């Protein structure tokens, strides 16, 4: 009697509960959209909302191919590159390995979205954090695609290419050295540093697809958040404010640095935007080009989701300050002043 009475509640407790899936939520949203189509059309038929939607789609579509490339490279590193191989290629001392990682960014044509999952995978393969972060900052800014785009955008100022290369590379190396000196492992969430087990035999391709898919899902959501933030800020900031800064060089540098963070442009396209801002001296434009690939709202969201909030809240402000300083010094050297 006792056994039967106690078994019945246990069977009831083991009964699986019904959960609402994402597919069901999507179906409900589609039904609501169809029923309220006329209301949604009238609400969305506003110039600022249409502009923001266009910018949001442009940011996500522009960044998504490079994000996919990054997660594929990340998956390939996890599945096919032994950790011992990476350690053999790098100098033993971090002070020397950081510049090597920065220069290695020249060979990989990716934007900042792609560099984030690659940097995390390097950390998981045993590469020192400072070295992975130097690569993260260098790859989007000093690769051949970005440099060629900068040369095309500034055909009458070829020195902008050299200034951007030196300023961005210096930012990556200095931040790597600063992290090696002052950074702490506990600032980065545990799963970003967790070592992966070495794959065996035929499991390598399975590991490649699994890690690539997981990285894409993980980073894609934060890309959407960053793109939405960039769209709102693009609409909220009047363009006339930017056009009045040509004669105030210090204010122009500050505003262009902040704009680089807020606009969240892809590094392959930001040179054309900077060149189109008429009346602005070259130095603020250079600051815009150096700061943007190093830190923007989209990249901050990706770093928060990948490495954790404690990391992003420390790394992003420091990167901003170092990038502005390196850009100004590079501009003074290569551009011949503030003009």
From TrEMBL:
Entry annotated with the keyword Hydrolase: no
The name this protein goes by in its record: Permease
Family to which the UniProt record says this protein belongs: Belongs to the UPF0718 family.
Segments passing through the bilayer: 20-40, 52-83, 130-154, 160-180, 216-237, 249-266, 273-295, 315-338
Keywords: Cell membrane, Membrane, Transmembrane, Transmembrane helix
Compartments reported by the entry: Cell membrane
Membrane topology value: Multi-pass membrane protein
Cellular component annotations (GO), alphabetically ordered: plasma membrane
């Amino acid at each position: 009697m006792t056994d039967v009475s106690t078994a019945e509640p246990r069977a009831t407790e083991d009964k699986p509960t019904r959960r609402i899936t994402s597919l069901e939520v999507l179906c409900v949203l589609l039904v609501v959209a169809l029923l309220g189509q006329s209301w949604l059309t009238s609400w969305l038929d506003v110039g600022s909302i249409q502009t923001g939607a266009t910018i949001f789609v442009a940011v996500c579509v522009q960044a998504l191919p490079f994000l996919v490339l990054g997660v594929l490279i990340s998956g390939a590193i996890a599945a096919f590159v032994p950790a011992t191989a990476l350690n053999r290629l790098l100098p033993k001392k971090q002070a020397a390995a950081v510049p090597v990682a920065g220069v290695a960014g020249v060979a990989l044509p990716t934007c900042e979205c792609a560099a984030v999952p690659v940097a995390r995978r390097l950390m998981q393969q045993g590469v020192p954090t400072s070295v992975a972060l130097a690569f993260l900052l260098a790859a989007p800014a000093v690769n051949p695609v970005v440099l060629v785009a900068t040369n095309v955008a500034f055909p009458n100022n070829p020195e902008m290419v050299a200034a951007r290369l030196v300023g961005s590379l210096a930012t990556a190396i200095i931040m790597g050295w600063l992290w090696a000196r002052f950074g702490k492992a506990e600032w980065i969430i545990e799963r970003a540093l967790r070592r992966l087990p070495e794959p065996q035999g035929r499991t390598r391709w399975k590991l490649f697809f699994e890690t690539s898919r997981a990285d894409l899902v993980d980073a894609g959501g934060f890309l959407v958040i960053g793109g939405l933030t960039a769209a709102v800020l693009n609409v909220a900031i009047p363009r006339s404010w930017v056009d009045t800064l040509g004669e105030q060089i210090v204010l122009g540098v500050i505003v262009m640095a902040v704009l680089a963070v807020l606009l969240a442009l892809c590094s392959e396209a930001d040179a054309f935007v900077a060149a189109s801002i008429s009346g602005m001296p070259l130095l603020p434009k250079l600051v815009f080009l150096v700061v943007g690939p190093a830190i923007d709202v989209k990249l901050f969201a990706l770093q928060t989701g990948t490495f954790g909030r404690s990391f992003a809240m420390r790394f992003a402000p420091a990167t901003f300050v170092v990038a502005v300083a390196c850009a100004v010094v590079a501009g003074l050297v290569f551009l011949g002043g503030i003009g």
